[in-house]
Specification:
about 110 residues; mainly alpha; 2 helices; about 80% helix; about 0% strand
């Protein structure tokens, strides 16, 4: 405390508290501080809006990824089914071709012995 009974260690010296400017709210330092507070408040509001938008985007992205995962599982199951079907069809074709070749060889052997 100083000798006049007031604190001299205030963070911001706003000037003489008894001046008419302070009573009317026209002090330039107060107006500057108020403008700064308003600016910071607006920036914070914009940041909150952006965070809310990102949250919404993340929710949408999560939904889409779940759908994609489900579709991938369905595709994998279908691909396995088609792969097995094609393998079976391929094996049938090989058996038919082998049977025809064996039948031709048997016919040739039978004709050659006659």
């Amino acid at each position: 405390m100083s000798t006049n009974g007031r604190n001299d260690y205030t963070a911001v010296n706003l000037g003489n508290e008894d001046s008419p400017q302070t009573k009317n709210g026209n002090d330039p330092k107060i107006q500057s501080l108020q403008e700064h507070v308003d600016e910071v408040s607006n920036i914070m509001q914009q940041n909150i809006d952006k965070i809310m938008q990102r949250g919404s985007n993340l929710d949408h992205l999560e939904d889409r990824s779940e759908i994609l995962s489900s579709n991938a599982n369905e595709f994998r199951i279908g691909a396995r089914r088609v792969s097995r079907k094609m393998w079976l069809q391929n094996m049938k074709m090989k058996i038919i071709i082998a049977s025809i070749i064996i039948a031709i060889i048997i016919i040739i052997i039978v004709v050659a012995r006659s």
